[in-house]
């Protein structure tokens, strides 16, 4: 069976390849962007995809859902440095094909997650399970911790600017701004720009006199 590594960090890919090399009957493929991932899955729709949601060029939960519907036999392992409880609750409700694994997970957990996915089973790592059990009011307090850059980008999102336009304005790459965008959505526990703007207005992160929904 094929395991597709959709992660842009060289050290992470190297570590995952090492882990996968000890698994019998497993072929490993690497992709660097969404187009490459889709092309790979067109040729093998029964793969396991290890995806760094935070750094890869996937925009939001809706796009993940579209991919899961397009490739229903694929098992997805969301392998990221940090994910909020609300995000995890949303994604596990979307489909049983999504597993969640944090990059801080122990090697045994990483191996277990891969084995579960190869058998078509969901796996939620211990740290994420604890996060899901955290009272929602405490999670709410922890959620709104945006950096100054993220607040600036959120304001541009509220103005209706696209990721490309924000990147051009900031003289930055599309990938960098898209990563900030996903981090903002994750921290606010929202799935799209409309929800992010509403949340930011309610929380006082943007001025309602300047910005609109």
Task: Describe the protein's architecture and organization.
The protein is of the alpha/beta class and 213 residues long. Helices cover 54% and strands 12% of the residues. The chain has a five-stranded parallel sheet with strand order 2-1-3-4-5, with helices on both faces. Helix 8 (148-158) crosses helix 10 (174-188) and helix 9 packs across helix 10. The longest helix has 15 residues, at 174-188. It is globular. The mean pLDDT is 84.
Strand arrangement within the widest β-sheet reads: 2-1-3-4-5
**Assembly classification:** single chain
End-to-end CA span: 46 Å
The main pleated sheet reads as: 5 strands, parallel
Portion of residues in helices?
40-55%
Number of DSSP E strands? 5
DSSP summary: helix tally: 11
Beta-strand portion reads 5-15%
Could you state the order of secondary-structure elements as H and E?
A: EHEHEHEHEHHHHHHH
